[in-house]
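ligand=adenosine-5'-diphosphate
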Amino acid sequence: MKILIINAGSSSLKYQLLDMDNEKLIAKGNCEKIGLSDPFISYKHDGKEEVFAGAKNHEEAIKKVLDILVDKKGGMLKNFDEIDAIGHRVVMGGWIFKESTLIDDKVIDEIDRLSEMAPLHNPAHVLCMRACKKVMPKIPQVAIFDTAFHTTMPEKAFMYAIKYEDYEKYHIRRYGAHGTSHRYVVQTLAKVLGKDVNKVNAITCHIGNGSSITAIKNGQSVDTSMGLTPLQGVVMGTRSGDIDPTVVQFLCSHKNKTVDEVLTYLNKECGLLGVSGVSSDHRETSKEAENGNKRAKLALDLLAYSVKKYIGAYMAVLNGAEAIVFTGGIGENSFEAREQILEDMEALGIVIDKDKNKNFKRGQIELISAENSKVKVYVIPTDEELMMARDTKEIVKNLKKSK
Ligand code: ADP
């Protein structure tokens, strides 16, 4: 079964074609700068990479990707009919979508309705779904929501203590994100532990450009660090993470900015970038810190400290976790970040083996806690596209059965 995974943002569209009979990647690429100047499409397959002219809009991007995939020269498909299903990543499923869902017109309208909460993403998802429907009307499409995994959070975790009427009227609450990644790593963890996922209590740390920490009880998300939007939580590449809302008012009045402008500032100019003044990239910031740049070191300290605090909080929420998992670009690759986050946590039963943490082959699952550590600490590379393709396969399979 061949599944096309689409991950659309406001001006980009990542795609992957997977063979789900053996869970192998066939081809992947990215449509970049959609609707901007000099758009282009990358296409990787069989260890090669090609670049094609880009697209003016999302519909054109979908058409071009399909053309590339069936191209006589380098295409990996003979025709569109070889695609059994399409899975779309959806950033905001709100309170409505609790699991991956087969797409029909009603579902598209609901995703569109949630655009207010993800104005850069949901409209792009909707455009892509409609474009796929137009080009390949017979191929089933599935929506996989970043928020779905977190819909199991109890009220006390997802509510903000604002006026209840406003929560009811405007649906202002914590939704979280990265749900597909947290779900993938906890399922993988369950396999590694040889347990049913419904019996796993763990803290999963997805740390990349965007980062979120999740408390998982009996395989379900019971709390997560991101909030109504991905701005909340730990310090990230360009996002401030948790902040006193009064800071917004201060910045508005001192910098003569609107609330929208300050929110853009908090999303795009803060975090590692804002504190270090160097880069939003963890590697770059680390290099600068090693060269003695104090602000760069401070930025890394803030990031590690914010993750440590969430781990401590979630140890309390879970009454102790059996495992902590690191994933995402930084979580998987920076031994320094992992070491710094988990230092001095013996009292909570967390002891890292510094050697193991530093010396293992990238891209593999690794146990990095010391033998005397009560809590096991793992690095588990995430694979959101594979998780999405598994969901899509499952839903489409059932669809075929029910026919
Ligand atoms: P996104 O949230 O955009 O998916 P990623 O998960 O790819 O981001 O993470 C990007 C971050 O991972 C960057 O800050 C980058 O510096 C960091 N990173 C990637 N590889 C390494 C590495 N080898 N060592 C340290 N940090 C790394």
